Automatic annotation (TrEMBL):
PROSITE patterns: THIOREDOXIN_2. Keywords: Antioxidant, Oxidoreductase, Peroxidase. It comes from Dreissena polymorpha (Zebra mussel). The active site is at residue 74. Belongs to the peroxiredoxin family. Prx5 subfamily. Residues 30-134 form the Thioredoxin domain. This is Peroxiredoxin-5, mitochondrial. GO terms for molecular function: thioredoxin peroxidase activity. Pfam families: Redoxin (PF08534).
Amino acid sequence: MAAAVRRSYINILNSTNRTDFVKTHIRWYLKRGIPVPSVDLYVDTPNNKVNAHELFKGKRGVLFSVLGAFTPGCKTHMPEYLDNYDKFKAEGFDVIACVAVNDPYVVSAWAESLNTRNKILMLADPKGRVYQGN
């Protein structure tokens, strides 16, 4: 399982490193043991705000991001996380979440189309604040 996740992580890095957005906007990276930044993200609607730091506080979690919902590259990464959901849970991960730089309605529709409900928490970050680390 670790190899599959590592391979997926490398694929995400390889696919996103080719974009100007990542090269110019991501100035901060989460690493193991570093707290998730205190930024407001959204689940389904702008009225359902979740603080990323509070969501992961005291929990073991998997947080990954995509550049945008419904993009071809990002759509190919999600199945591997879904396929490994039970393994993540068996290894003691409490929260498995995906952040996308889109409005909450778009992320919600994407979650519905990928059938991620009750597995991966889909978080909207319309201002890209997670990427900025603040």
